[in-house]
Amino acid sequence: MDILTEGEGRLLGWHDPDEHRSWVRANKTRELKDKRMSVREAVERFVQDGDLIASGGFGHVRISMAFIYEIIRQRRRDLVVLAKTGVHDVDLLIGAGCVRQVEVAYAFGHELRGLSPAGRRAVESGQVEVVAEISNAAFQWRLLAGAMGIPFIPARVLLGTDTFKKSATKVARDPWSGKPVCLVPACHPDVAILHVHRCDPYGNAQIDGILVMDFELARAARRLLITAEEIVDEEVIRRQPDRTTIPFFLVDAVCEAPYGAHPGLMPYHYYFDEAHIREWLTLSKTEEGAKEYLDKYVFGVRDFEAYLERVGGVRKLNHLKRVEQLRAPLFQEDEA
Amino acid sequence: MSEAEYTPTELLAAVAAGMLEDKRSVLVGTGLPIIAATLARRTHAPQLLIVFEAGGIGPQVPVLPISVGDSRTFYRAVAATSMHDVMSFLQNGYVDYGFLGGAAIDAYGNVNTTVFGDWKRPQVRLPGSGGANDAGSLCWRTIIIMRQDRERFLAKLPFVTTPGYLTGPGAREAAGLPPGTGPYRVITQLGVYGFDEESCRMKLLATHPGVTRDDVRASSSFELIIPDEVETTEPPSVQVRRILREIDPAGLVISK
Fold first, then answer.
1. Domains of chain B, earliest start first
2. So what's the ipTM on this one?
3. What pLDDT does residue B2 have?
4. Which of A77, A163, A194, B218 lies 20 to 30 A from A299 at CA?
5. In this predicted model, what pLDDT tens digit does every residue of A173-195 receive, in sequence order?
6. Contact residues on chain B for A171, CB-CB shorter than 8 A
């Protein structure tokens, strides 16, 4: 195929498809075995310094904050992050000094809430390096190619822009139409962390609501760690197999973490904790403030359950449930 | 509520809503785009199909979502799918309108949301493309809503995140982008712009009430095409403003 032009961004997570097949054969068990473990053990075993890591969900929607906090608590360093839509998940990892490099579709922002002080400071000071730009569609197609076991996918985005020039993609001439087309390289993250609604002990997992790109991410990643609102019996899965998004053999660790996306949103369960996110966005305007936040909510608590007590316990969590069900305004009376 | 009290954001929402035709589809982000699309559905375009990039298709959005992946983006939807699904709809030509925001724009409607200064060590780092490059590449008509001043309407962008007409006529097709697509309107606090068919350069179509052509000219670093006759936009009615308050009860966007 005729290559017309190449982006100069760094290529992350690309493996020769045959090399990846061999890795899967050697490292991914097909045994139906109980993979339940603590969040702490999962991070100890499967997240290494320098890993290429991706977070499921949508930046602050259905993200595994239980894993994010534990990665920070275990002081992982030099992580390379796929910021497909990086919002609170990536912001906290950066704010805690765990991240060295990022490939960016969307990062350093909090959607409607504005820009994120910690992420911006890290890039503008050189603490974190952006090594490639990409778009949301192209990122998701990188993962789809990884999930399919093929080296790249052609797509009609990025063309003609600086986003392309700073990406790890190439433009080639389509052998059928003769038109330029963008070739998006496959990506296999070293580790993906996902939060789901329910999962059985083996890793068969179901997600309610939009999947965003978790179908593709789960299949592209080498190690896949799952937290679930609820661990269910295998029977629950087998009763409705059409509901399974992720089959067990993709999964390396299963951890129970009710409210595991807090302060993010968990569809049908609980809404954003806007007061808590505002506390982070206010404190993280300075390095000292970010440290104060982390000392209080991550290093200062034993585990995720202790964290939930600290952020407001049952009263707060019940409020977030009511907001999700459209039965309460965003803020509680004493928060507004 | 009296007519005189409308906020600048209410005006922009009403103007944007008016551009969306019934029985068409629109890719929206959160903030003003979903407010405008919801307003259109509740007024002249009840069958406007709303899609969100994270997977929400045809929702009946009850209140302003905070995220494009918010549960409000698939509330009473016809489908809750995935980004692959929605982006493939865009790529196959199913999506008529796409909304974009921007930190800076040039005469050809190219948009920057990535950096000011050096890419490696920027003065200001912004979030990047997100789904903007995809929307700007693949939707039939993109509508850009942004603030206008001389630092934002630039002759040369520091970074082209999302394609407009690139370097001019024919450039999109030469780059491999689908023919017949591109920027359709730009809405700012001063007025509404389209693009000249011959040159693909930005052209003033309407000013907001009280805004002069000189105000418009003075707030751009590139030369705008300003025809002799331009329209004046309609201020939002009391009824429209009541609907806007229902969509954004906390006033997160609409009160600004």
1. 3-247 (3.40.1080.10)
2. 0.97
3. 55
4. A194
5. 999 999 999 999 999 999 999 99
6. 176
